[in-house]
Amino acid sequence: MSQSNVAKEPGEESPVANLPSPDEKKKREYKEFGHDEEKPTHANVDMSLIELKAEDLYDKEKVDLETIVIDDVFKLLQCDENGLDAEEAQRRIELFGPNKLEQEEQNAFLQFLSFMWNPLSWVMEGAALVAIVLSNGNGQPPDWEDFIGIVLLLFINSAIGFYEERNAGNAVKALMDSLAPKAKVKRNGTWSEIESAGLVPGDMISFKIGDIVPADCRLTESINVSIDQAALTGESLPQSKKLGDQCFSGSTCKQGEAEGVVISTGANTFFGRAASLVGQDDDTTGHLQKILAQIGSFCLVSIGIFVIAEILVLYAGFRYSYRRGLNNILVLLIGGIPIAMPTVLSVTLAVGAQQLAKHKAIVTRITAIEELAGVTILCSDKTGTLTTNKLTIDRATIRTYGPFSSDDVMLLAAYASRTENQDAIDSAVVQALGDVTRARAGIKLLDFKPFNPVDKRTEITYREESSGKLKRVTKGMTGIIIELCTRNKTEELENRLEADVEEFATRGLRALAVAYEELEGQDPEGEGNGFELIGLLAIFDPPREDTKQTIDDALALGVKVKMVTGDQLAIAKETGRRLGLGDHMYPAKVLKDGPAPGSKHLSLDEMILDADGFAGVFPEHKYEIVKRLQGLGHLCAMTGDGANDAPALSRANVGIAVEGATDAARGAADIVLTEPGLSTIVHAIRGSRVIFQRMRNYSIYACAVTIRIVVCFAILAFAFKFDFPPFMVLIIALLNDGTIMTLSVDRVLPSMTPDSWDLAEIFSFAVAYGIYLTASTVALVSIIMKTSFFYDKFGVTFQNGSKTPLTANDYQLHMIVYLQVAIISQALIFVTRSHGFFFMERPSAALMGAFCIAQLVSSIIAAYADFGFTQIQPISGGWIGIVWVWNIVWFAPLDWIKFAMKATVIKKLRQRRDAAQAEQVTAGIPITRTQSRAASIHESLYSNRVSFIRRAARKVGFGSKVTMKPEELQRFSSIQAQRTGATLARNPSRTAAP
């Protein structure tokens, strides 16, 4: 071996590499995968006059605390390396506030009252007022029975909603709690430990391995520092930090120790920006609330029309007394509104949440279940969500350059790795062996040099027990390792290595070179026979095992998946290719710059809709992507696991925190997965669509009953001066809703496409069913009043043996109408829950059992009830049998009405909708799916519930909340410069320099 030995002093290059030659080649620069370095800049303002030029700090081109040189940072923040004195620190606390996130405490009483502030509750409250206040007339006492029944239902509904909301996770609190509680700070030239909340911009801080960085800072000293900021930025690898680099609040020091100057605290930090985004309440009206608002409006309009009609006809036309007319109006108010609709839907969602929990999905915001059923786009974070967030060696891409096989290269690389106190790369290499004991099997360790930022490699010298020979292996950055190699370094080898490294870089894989040499003699400090390059390993963050199948399943369910990650573009594209997502991805800067001139995309919205994903994004970018997709009419789900995902998780219609997520992500999410991987999401989507079908079935039923009650009793009042007792309508509502609650466990099939609330269809079905059922009641009353048909055929009579009722308000006639309405109204659910004939889709045992019990109760009431406070009397078994047969005869054609509606009205509605979408395509507008047609008109009714709390809280002194608008959000560094510099400039602690 005549080649020169290679010196092992750190940082020295091979002598061979330094020998001059006539045609000396330029040193190769291997295009390693990594960040583009940003060189330090200077502030383009006069730093001595900075307090007089505060407006300059709003221009990122002039000053940016993240990139300007350290000297300018000290000038800008008016501090030095000795730290602040106690007086100045206190002054800055008053200027900037504490280094923590403020949390708005919501008053529990006002929160409970807010659940009575929506259209459905307004009608309930109005009916209660009518019963207790306005009914007190004509020498009769107030209608206490109706009042108590209505108020009881109202309080039950509010209590359920209050309980659910009170127990929901508080995202801002989780973010606040995850800030570092203690910090080591230099004040008056002396180091001490204080609460991290006491830090201010300009403080000197220090931290070491295992510490959480307490505030955004620029490093003034750095000793072998590595920072894990995956939970903040989504980057897979810990980042090495050198003098002048920025460290983020909330990141973790994995190696070394450092000192730095604080540049931002509290809400102005990168971490605080995420909290501020989560805390925003610019879109507090949930999707289900919007739908409820529209259904409530439908009921209000229906009731309003007939209440006005009754006032005109009964008072102006029939000259009714005050109390008699009011009782008729009360029937419409109580029976017309689906009083327990929020409660029924809440129970349906609560039962659904329990079912999802069996699939390891914990629901923290219960209405998210309904929104998940309609999700059309799933925006997924990459690190820790689509991938394992655990570095791995890709054995399939190992490159070999000598006589060694890929398995040999792996084994030798594992020799050159620590087996204890490992960093992320050493752990990945050793784990790749399968059996970690092989990393030291058959060898005796003589010397080991761990990785350091200067040498950028590890090295082991060992004795091979089988031969007794001393050998040496090194692994590290490609450029460093190839310079050490003297044995097999040729032009051909270097060309091949350079091509392999560049291929890895374009695929987002980090290259790790491995070299090997043998030592002559038994001196472990001796020189070897020269390193030989033997292999190149590819390091990456691999996808979870079930991720690809989950994505395929989501696509089959009509849900498009987009990757939105803080990691780099090459990594995102490689992950996308491996998962079948596609590699049509863009860097985050396009969100600011828009599509390039001449590209196929006409607008940024179109580009976002078409993209497979985005890389290098910050929290505000993720938030913006989700917001824009929502603006295009899509319901968005967002998955994530880090604090950097929290803003988008909060903004999304459905935020999903995966297993192992940070407290911040779990707090912002609507659904928290407790099992690794995303497969649970597919179960959750299917489960939510089952729940959606149950709610849709109930909505059709509830609206149909509204039409049925309002139209039916108004017509009876107009035609026969029929005064139905209000209390019996309340009994009908109670029995109906008690039965319908079992829909929460009904047997239905999920759809294979995203569900949507087509309210035009729901209302069309409701009107058709309602008018038909009205006809069934009016026909029965007409036959009873006008003929003796039932006496002639069945021998049934009324009071005193009369063949027909003496008046339209015969107490037994009231009971007959009660029984007929109660039975056929409940039976309608079997028609609304089925797509074909009702008997072709078997209901759940619970629904069938509840229906039978309710009908039994209704029949018993008809046979025996004789309440003294309301106008009813028991009827004979003959009448009960007649009503049952009558209802069965009228029930049979309901399925045919459903089919007729589908063939006519519903078909035309869908054709009109399809035509509108086709027109959009022709106009070049991408097809989008709107949440609902009239949401913008009606959502303000429900947003009142949220604003009610805040208005009331301000008036009674319960405090207020300061939020930041999305349009104010820029890249976090310029926000830091703006807030810190501008505040200090307005409150200078020194005079301007001459």
TL;DR of this structure?
This protein has 994 residues and is an alpha+beta fold. The chain is 48% helix and 12% strand.
Report on this model:
- It contains 37 helices and 22 strands.
- It is an alpha+beta fold.
- The chain has an eight-stranded mixed beta sheet, sandwiched between helices. Strands 1, 2, 3, 4, 5, 6 and 7 form a seven-stranded antiparallel beta sheet that branches.
- α24 links the parallel β20 and β21 (654-657).
- α4 (108-114) crosses α6, α5 runs antiparallel to α6 and α10 packs across α36 (935-956).
- The chain is elongated, with a radius of gyration of 37 Å.
- The model is unreliable at 1-25, 33-38, 50-60, 168-180, 279-285, 924-979 and 990-994 (pLDDT under 50).
Give the SSE map.
Elements: H1 15-18, H2 70-77, H3 86-96, H4 108-114, H5 119-134, H6 144-166, H7 171-177, E1 182-187, E2 190-195, E3 204-208, E4 216-228, H8 230-233, E5 239-241, E6 246-247, E7 252-264, H9 270-279, H10 287-317, H11 322-336, H12 341-357, E8 361-363, H13 368-373, E9 377-380, H14 382-386, E10 392-393, E11 399-400, H15 406-415, H16 424-431, E12 443-449, E13 457-464, E14 470-476, H17 478-484, H18 491-506, E15 510-519, E16 532-540, H19 547-556, E17 560-564, H20 569-579, E18 585-587, H21 590-593, H22 604-610, E19 613-615, H23 619-631, E20 636-640, H24 646-651, E21 654-657, H25 663-668, E22 671-673, H26 679-720, H27 726-740, H28 759-786, H29 789-794, H30 811-827, H31 829-832, H32 845-864, H33 877-891, H34 894-903, H35 905-922, H36 935-956, H37 972-986
Parallel strand pairs: 9-17, 9-20, 17-19, 18-19, 20-21, 21-22
Antiparallel strand pairs: 1-2, 1-3, 3-7, 4-5, 4-6, 4-7, 8-22, 10-16, 11-16, 12-13, 13-14, 14-15, 15-16
Helix pairs in contact: 4-6, 4-36, 5-6, 5-11, 7-9, 10-11, 10-26, 10-36, 11-26, 11-27, 12-26, 19-26, 26-28, 27-30, 27-32, 28-30, 28-34, 30-32, 30-33, 34-35
